[in-house]
TrEMBL record:
This is Uncharacterized protein. The lineage of its organism: Bacteria, Pseudomonadati, Pseudomonadota, Gammaproteobacteria, Methylococcales. The chain crosses the membrane at residues 36-57. The keyword Transmembrane applies. It comes from Methyloprofundus sedimenti. The keyword Membrane applies. Residues 1-26 form the signal peptide. Keywords: Membrane, Signal, Transmembrane, Transmembrane helix.
Amino acid sequence: MKKRPVSFCVFAVLVIFSAFPSLVGADQNSRDLPPVGPYGVAVTPGIYLVNFSLLYISNPNLAANMPAYRTPIPLVFSDCLEKNPQGCSYAAFARFFGDKPFPRSKSCSYPTACQANSKWERLAPGIARRLSQLNEPLGLDRANKIARSLGIDKGMILTDWEYQCMIGTPADRDEDQDTIVTCVNNLTNSNGTTNIPLSSYGLSITQKGDAQSDCAPEAPCLVFNDLFDGPLEKIAIKCGFEQKLDRMVRETSFPQLIENANGCQQFGIKETNGACIVEPVCSSRYD
């Protein structure tokens, strides 16, 4: 499999919650807790923050629509994805999404390939503890705080003209611009932006009505990785923001985030037959 760099997309997994009260001891708790489901790789720290950085400099309002919280993919659906990595019918599994998150959970962590330093993990989506937090967008205030923590300043943000030049208009977009726009929409499918929000799961809906990980085979955000190797630079030169893109790469944590994200994405692809989701590592302890 061709090794791809990470960029506008990618993803991961962490925790599920348990409503079960503490019973006799850790072993009993472990038996009574429900199995822990995976996450789409898009909500893991490195990948999430790579995508955030690119969206924020493009337009802070885009980054503000990324998910503020993460939640596990229903196990029955993740099983389907491992057999059908390009996606499974959302309509067939819709009833399994949107269940009320449990207030407590097993003590879980990311697999080693998706772990990040504590600063980055604090900036990534937290665990959804309430139903209202599912697919909740960051909002501009939180997005601005994350951007400052990553070292992104106002001088790196594209002007309205530069952004419009990058994405084109619906009537005249080329294939690369279509890929960018679709990937952005997939990464920001939070409440209020789409009829079927799935951002907290790290999933998105295809034109066929399937739900898939944002780095599933041939997913727009995975295809964007190839654009980041060359075509995006050409677009930046054409639209006059190449220095802003260069500053973001050189003066922020972006290179380290890319390295972390690439390892996590490749792990998610390899371990799930291309589905690009990640299983958490859990103990019998409660969080």
